[in-house]
Amino acid sequence: MKICVFGAASNEIDHMYIQRVEELCKALGERGHELVFGAGANGLMGAAARGMKAGGGKITGVIPNFFREETIEEIYSECDEIIFTDTMQERKKTMEDRADAFIVVPGGIGTFEEMFEVLTLKQLGRHQKPIVFYNLAGYFDNLMAFMKHCSDEGFIRRNCHKLYNVTDNNEELYGFIEHSKPLNFSVSDLKHS
Question: How far apart are CA 160 and CA 169, in angstroms?
Answer without folding.
Answer: 22
